[in-house]
Design brief:
Layout lengths: L5 H21 L4 H4 L2 H6 L5 H28 L23 H9 L1
C-alpha cells in the first residue's frame, strides 16, 4: 500500500490535528510556543536566565516524551520488517502478537 494512499493521508492529518488540539486543551507546552518568550526578554519583562530555564524544561519534557513514543514503536515491533525506503511493513494477524507488543501497538 502506498504511503500517499488518500485514506492514509487523511488519517495522518486527523491525527496531527487531534494531537495539536489535545496539547492546547490540556494546557501542555510545546517548544515552538515557548520561543515567543524571547519577546518578553527583549522587552525586559523576563530575565535571560528564566528564558533558558523554561526552554531547558520544555526541551527535556519533549525529549522524554519522544523517547517514550520511540520505546512504544520499538516494543510494538514496527522496526522489524523495515523496507529500504524507510517505510514500515504492516503485518496482518495481530492476534498472534505477544502481550507487550500488542499493548504498545495500541498506543502507536
Amino acid at each position: 500500500m502506498d504511503v500517499l494512499y488518500p485514506p492514509i493521508v487523511l488519517l495522518g492529518g486527523l491525527a496531527f490535528s487531534l494531537g495539536l488540539i489535545l496539547v492546547v486543551v490540556s494546557g501542555a507546552e510545546l517548544f515552538t510556543g515557548n520561543t515567543m518568550i524571547v519577546m518578553a526578554v527583549v522587552d525586559g519583562k523576563v530575565s535571560l536566565a528564566k528564558l533558558l530555564r523554561n526552554w531547558s524544561i520544555v526541551l527535556l519534557g519533549n525529549l522524554i516524551g519522544s523517547m517514550v513514543i520511540l520505546a512504544l514503536v520499538y516494543w510494538a515491533g514496527l522496526f522489524k520488517g523495515m523496507l529500504p525506503n524507510g517505510r514500515c511493513r504492516w503485518r496482518s494477524g495481530k492476534h498472534h502478537l505477544p502481550g507487550l507488543r500488542h499493548f504498545a501497538g495500541g498506543f502507536v
